[in-house]
Write a structure and sequence with these properties.
With 227 residues, this protein is an alpha+beta fold. Helix content is 32%, strand content 28%. The protein has a 5-stranded mixed barrel with strand order 1-3-5-6-7. Helix 2 runs parallel beside helix 3, helix 2 packs parallel to helix 5 and helix 3 packs across helix 5.
C-alpha cells in the first residue's frame, strides 16, 4: 500500500505509544474492546489489525470514545496470540507493524472508534545521514543504559539497522508520551535518530546527576496496558 492509499481502521486509544516491531501485550476487559477482538478473530490472521493511538487528553477506560483526545499519528497492532478467559476477557499479544496518520474520524456504528488512515512510509531521509547517525545513537543508547543501571550494563545485543534501532530506542528509553509521540511522527529515520541522540544525551546527563536506580532493559519497554 502506498502512502496515498487509505484504509479504515478500528482505533484503540492507549496511554502509551506503539512502534513498529515492538511487542504490546494487552488485557481486554471493556465490552467495546471485547467486541473488537471478537470481530478481528473472525478475520484471517493478516487482517487481525487495529490502530493504536496515544491519548493526549482523557482516559483509557470508561470514557466515551468521542471524548478521548488522541494524537493523529499511530501504529497498527497485529494480533499474534489470543487467550480467552472464563470471564469473557481476553489476553492478547500484539506486534506493532505500520505507522499511519488519521485523515478522517468516522462516525462509527461500532462501540469503538474508527478512522480513515493513510499509511506513512519509512523514508531513510537524506542519503547517508541515517547510516551515519545510527552508530552514534547506538553508542549513546549503550551509555544511557549504563547510566540507568550500572557500569557493567549496556552490553545487550542491540540492532544496528538504523530503522529498527530508531524504533527500539524510542520505545524503550524512559521518555514522556509526548517525546515518544514526536519520535513516532518523525518524517524519516534520520530525523528520528537525530532527535533520539539529543534526548539520550539529555537523559544521560540527568541520570548521572541523580544516580538512577539500576534496572533491567526488560523493565524499560512499553508495558502492558489495561483495556
Amino acid at each position: 500500500m502506498t502512502n496515498t492509499e487509505r484504509t479504515v481502521l478500528p482505533l484503540f486509544p492507549l496511554g502509551t505509544v506503539l512502534f513498529p516491531g515492538l511487542v504490546l501485550p494487552l488485557h481486554i476487559f471493556e465490552p467495546r474492546y471485547r467486541e473488537l477482538v471478537r470481530s478481528l478473530l473472525s478475520q484471517p490472521q493478516p487482517e487481525r489489525v487495529f490502530g493504536v493511538v496515544a491519548i493526549r487528553r482523557g482516559w483509557e477506560v470508561g470514557q466515551p470514545v468521542d471524548e478521548v483526545d488522541t494524537y493523529d499519528v499511530g501504529c497498527t497492532a497485529e494480533i499474534r496470540t489470543v487467550t480467552e478467559n472464563p470471564d469473557g476477557t481476553y489476553d492478547i499479544v500484539t506486534v506493532g507493524r505500520r505507522r499511519f496518520a488519521i485523515t478522517e474520524r468516522i462516525a462509527a456504528t461500532t462501540p469503538y472508534a474508527q478512522a480513515a488512515v493513510t499509511y506513512l512510509p519509512e523514508s531513510p531521509g537524506p542519503e547517508g545521514v541515517a547510516d551515519e547517525l545510527g552508530p552514534r545513537v547506538l553508542a549513546a543508547f549503550r551509555s544511557y543504559l549504563r547510566a540507568y543501571r550500572s557500569a557493567a550494563a549496556g552490553q545487550e545485543q542491540l540492532p544496528d539497522d538504523p530503522v529498527v534501532l530508531s524504533h527500539l530506542v524510542a520505545a524503550t528509553a524512559s521518555l514522556s508520551v509526548s517525546d515518544r509521540q514526536a519520535l513516532l511522527a518523525a518524517p524519516d529515520t534520520a530525523a528520528r535518530l537525530r532527535e533520539e541522540l539529543r534526548l539520550l544525551q539529555r537523559e544521560i546527563t540527568l541520570l548521572r546527576r541523580i544516580r538512577a536506580i539500576p534496572a533491567q532493559l526488560s523493565d524499560l519497554p512499553v508495558r502492558p496496558g489495561p483495556n
